[in-house]
Amino acid sequence: MEVPRLIDYFAVYGLNEDMPISSHTPTFEKDKSSSFASNFNAISSLRLRITNEDEVLMAAKSDFLVFYEISCKDGKRLWLEIVYGRINGKVRGTWNGRSISKIELYKLPSQGSHIKIPVSNPLDPVPVMTTGTNVHQYSHTENDYHYYLGNYDITDLVVAKRIEGFKLVLTCTYCETSGQTPINDIKLVAATLHQNEKGEMKKVALIPENYNYLNFPFGKNRDSYLCFRSTSDPLNIAFKAEIIEKFPRDDYADSPLNQAIHMFCFTEGIKLSKEQLSPTVFSFILTTVDENTKKVPRIYITCLIFYEMISETIAKQMNIIQTSPNNVYMPKALCLVSHWPFIDQFREILKEIYRLHLSVYEIPLERVICNLIQEVPLPDQGVTYVQYSIGRQKLFFSRPPAKNLPYLPDTCLEYLFRSLRISDIISVWSCVMVERKILLISKCKALLTYVAIALTRLIYPFKWDQVLISILPTALKNYIETIFPYIIGVSPTMLSKDIEIPIDAVRVDLDAGRVLITEPFPRLPDKPYRQLLNRLTDCANIYSEHDLVRDNVDEAFCCYMRENDENFNFNPYAVKDAFVEFQSQLLRNYQRFFLMPSKAGERFTDARQCFNTPSFLAYHKSNRPDNFLYKVTETSMFANFIETRYFAPEENYELSYFDEALKFKRTKNDPYFVKPYFPQDTSPSLFANDIGFEPGSVFQYSSFPRLNDSLFIEPRRILNLAGNSAPKPALLLKDDMLMRMTQTEWAKFLITTIYRVWFMSFAICMSRYKDYGNELIGLALHIMDLMKKNGNKPDEEIYRKLIEACGKCGLKEKVMSLFKRMKNQGIEPDACTHGVYVSAVAAGQELSKQSDQIINLKDLPPDSLCLTLNLDDVAFVANDDCPNCEYNLTEEDIMSGWEKSYSNYTTRCPTANCDQKFVAKFSVLLSSLDGTDPRAMKVEFLSPPLIRKELENLIYTHGEGSMLAKDFCDKHRILYWNMALYFSLLRLPFFFLNPNCKEDKIPDIVGNYVKQPRENPKNTNKPAPNWGYSANSVSDDMSDKSSVSGMSDHSNHSHNAYMDTIITNFMRGRSGSKKSSVPSDNQSTKSSTKNASLKKMFGNYIEDFRSENLNKGLRYSNEDKDGEVESQRKPPLGPSTKSRLSRK
After folding, report:
1. Crossing angle of helices 973-985/743-765, nearest 10°?
2. Contact present, 397 and 385 (Cβ < 8 Å)
3. Where are the PPR repeats (predicted)?
């Protein structure tokens, strides 16, 4: 789909007023006008003409005139002239509306030049026309006879015996009441020779089906019969539905409107009714093929059918006389077509559109429909509700997060469990799992679709790619006999027809709550089956033989409300979780049985090559062909699952979700893996546009209107919420997991998160140094070893990032080595990791285009931090003062005050009498490469989980190239300096953050870090950095772009005072002062295990971190004093700078 759309089309289906066609009439374009007569042709008159033997009568370019030669005798030819008033939808301009309903042949009494017809039998004689002037007319009525003057006798023109006083007359009867049906077609059928059972050749006339005939042989050889067909009662005819309206007017190139929708709206064709039946609403599913992607997406159509009085045009064509209370009504279908199964919301929208056309509304329906189709965005995955208001309804649309189960409306599950007992549901579900034919039977169309969707969603992580027809039209009834697996919904009446149901089809009678399985199916594993049965009994035992909600599901406006149910206990999330748990047990440890390429460039193409099925079955003790798992592994959907799982791209989060379900342990406190999701934001959609209408305008309709193009309006711009298919990191990083951690686990998690951020940023930046990929991977492995020594094992995400980076750099051997190392450490790769690995090994892709975004310092503005930044000589001051009590918090205090959260930016003062929450900050002292003035700035001190979330949000929003952008440290300073601080704290190399790091220095940097033992920072003798005499003013702004101070010049005295204050703060953590971290009597700190856990994890790191940065600060202070004379040349402070320094 080019642009994600909530709804593709609004369409209206019903009778074609110009030419109603029977649903049993062939509908080829050429047949409409010629080969097949419409059911509603009307013959207005008949005449007989006599010509000489050598004359031939032909219609003179008229569609309404037809001639048949019915006899030839004594050199004369007799022709039947048929005049149509309406033929194939065309109406003759001079037609008076009368039509013939009957043709008969009588011997009528005659008197002179007159024939007599009884008054009780209203016949019209067919005149016999000859050349010249002919008089044929009604003369008078006498003695219960109508007298007609003229020639009507055909006795001498056909082979018939003359009787004195009588004449052989062809008569017709005209429709006088609505109960009479006109003749719509006349044929002359000649008899042909046929061999009978005795072998004798006899002439036989084959009368067409549904035709009557005159039992009198015409023709010279008495071998032709006049046949005619009467129009059936319109109330007994099933008409073909056609599209009446649609919006938008033009089809989308990527998803044209399906031409078969009308068949599913009216499965047995359109039938007229003498009653105005109540509206019904249901949904159905169509499967299409995307020619561009070759995918087979499913289309969801929601349809509301209502009845309104037939139009005058249709009434005239069908010879229906509308007289109250004997009115005739015809159905129409309002449809919403979408790629998304929001069938409950669509149901309510159609009900409101139906209500609006019956009421007075301030804007026309055209504007309502235009707003609905073009101005309501598709929601994103798990973040935003889209709110849509129509009429008196306020509806909400939301999609689950990408890392979640496929969308399944709760209504579908509810009606499944309302229709069948739990044991029967499990049996049917088992048959779906082994790809049996499933025949759903119900008189309720909505119920068929609800149950079909539920069954196909409950087989997660598998996908049903076989035939799925939730409502089968009568015209496609032969689909039931197909040999392929299917899920098909039918009405009970369809099965009573000439249909041979396959013996292996499972019949599911949803109305009676019965399941008929004629062929045995494999039993489910005992323990998982009992567990599934018990769980479903606890949360979804709602079946009842007499369920008014289920039986009235098709009714659009049902009086029986769901709230009337007593003791209704249904938990859809518990149902989903029960089936996910069963699948988790059924496929336990399946990842272990994937086969990996043994050499670079080797490519697997299907499930047989990449999965060891015999070993998998042996592991589960399911080697026998009658085992349930054995049958499952033989299905095409299992093969598709394995192939998708193996070859999946990284963004296949649905499979990753199932891999997480395999690892989940259910407890009393946390019994469900499948949990409800609650989008954080709500995005109200635009109201229908009323521009161009006067205040107080009203619109009212007598019937559902034809849409007026002049009332449509150009759509307004809307947000593209569904533009990014990947899940927002905030959806994957949830606080509930952190809240359950102990203090020790939390402290360990902080360190692991720092490592994860390092590997994430390191892997992204590898493309900047593509020529030294091997050296960088060696450095990453060395960091992994350090992690293990410190009790922090690298997880799957870290390996995946490195594998992906190696793939981009073309290091296939390293890819295989990393993958093998990961598996040797007991990490079973999930779907994302498998996809990344296969792509890296098989595809052999070179570096991505992100490498083109390497920093180009020439393009930066003159005040960019990147131009002069020397990250190697940066010093950090990581303690801060409480704004309330002025207590000076050390690094441990700040870290202990963080909440276990991915979204809280504050820390808490540890003093007992304060407990103030505030955003802590750390100071950055940095020198420059060109010997210019140093800079000092304050940056918000964020927790590692926050840094991880912000980094992933940045990548999610702007892509990985944002880290390689030339102005990364300028645009994202909070993130940049927090990453630098944490990497420095854990002694991790962060040269890739340095915009001035030259590529040819990489081997030396890596070699020094890996091969040489690290010097104690306390005894370092590195040359002092070249500090200057000006510093930054300090800003307390919280925004990411302005949280770091800008440049300003100030006096040397002010600068020295400020820098001395910062340097003194280094010492407070070691000696104590007025605002020392050693509290006074009235500043006692709260006793907690937080500091103990953090000190145990971070103690050595923090001590070395303080010492190294203190030495840098002291060297800076000494050089700052030596340069005091030179600083006198600096320009004086401006007023704004002085005020900021005085406040500081």
Report:
1. 110
2. yes
3. 795-829
The CA-atom distances, in angstroms, between 424 and each of 25, 513, 531, 545, 571 are 42, 9, 15, 14, 19
SS3 content of the chain, % helix, strand, coil (to 5): 35, 20, 45
Beta strands in 480-590 (DSSP E): 486-490, 505-509, 514-516
* CA angle, residues 905, 1091, 895, in degrees to nearest 5: 20
Contact 983, 760 (CB under 8 A): no
Query: How much is the mean pLDDT over the chain?
Result: 81
Nearest to 1046 by CA among 975, 970, 1130: 970
Structure-model confidence comparison of residues 252 and 1032, the more confident one: 252
Helix (H, G, I), strand (E, B) or coil at 755: helix
**DSSP string for 930-974:** TS---EEEEEE---HHHHHHHHHHHHHHH-THHHHSTTHHHHSHH
Class for the domain spanning 410-663: alpha beta
CA–CA dist 612, 455 (Å, integer) = 28
- Placement of tokens 């003369």 in the chain: 139
Helix axes 1090-1122, 973-985, angle to 10 degrees: 100
Rounded CA-CA distance 365/391 in Å is: 11
**For the stretch 775-785, what's the b/e string if a residue is b when 16 or more beta carbons lie within 10 angstroms of its beta carbon?**
bbbebbbebbe
Hunting for tokens 């039998």 — which residue is that?
A: 121
31 DSSP 8-state letter: I
Q: Is the peptide bond preceding residue 1025 cis, with omega within 30 degrees of 0?
A: no
Q: What phi and psi values does residue 76 have, to the nearest 5 degrees?
A: -115, 145
Nearest to 534 by CA among 424, 422, 628: 422
SS3 881: strand
Q: What is each CA distance from 83 to 46, 63, 135, 185, 232, in whole angstroms?
A: 6, 9, 19, 11, 20
- For 1021, the token pair is 């003798």
Q: What is the mean pLDDT of residues 81-99?
A: 84
Which residue, chain included where needed, has tokens 């100071």?
923
Contacts of 564 (CB under 8 A, 6+ apart): none
Q: What are phi and psi of 568, to 5 degrees?
A: -80, 115
Query: pLDDT, tens digit, for every residue of 599-632?
Result: 655 667 777 888 899 999 999 999 899 999 999 9
Q: Binning pLDDT at 50, 70 and 90, where does residue 415 land?
A: very high
CA atoms within 13 A on the CB side of 509: 11
Residue 277 has φ and ψ, to the nearest 5°, of -70, 155
Query: Which of 186-195, 605-614, 1028-1037, 1054-1063 holds the top average pLDDT?
Result: 186-195
| Domain map (residue ranges) of the chain | 3-18+40-230, 410-663, 744-844+866-1011
According to the model, what pLDDT value does residue 1054 have? 41
**477: buried, middle or exposed (CB in 10 Å: 19+, 13-18, 0-12)?**
middle
Residue carrying the six token digits 């193009």: 709
Gap between the terminal Cα atoms of the chain: 57
pLDDT higher than threshold 60 for residue 854: no
Type of residue found at 528: P
Confidence of residue 103 (pLDDT cuts 50, 70, 90): very high
186: which strand partners? 228
Once rounded to an integer, what is the mean pLDDT over residues 327-345? 94
Contact 115, 148 (CB under 8 A): yes
At 302 the pLDDT is: 97
Q: How far is CA 1143 from CA 596, 916, 1058, in A?
A: 64, 21, 11
Check residue 132 and give its pLDDT: 61
Contacts of 1061 (CB under 8 A, 6+ apart): none
In 112-149, DSSP assigns E strands to 114-118, 124-125, 128-129, 137-142, 145-149
Q: Assess contact for 417 and 716: CB atoms under 8 A.
A: no
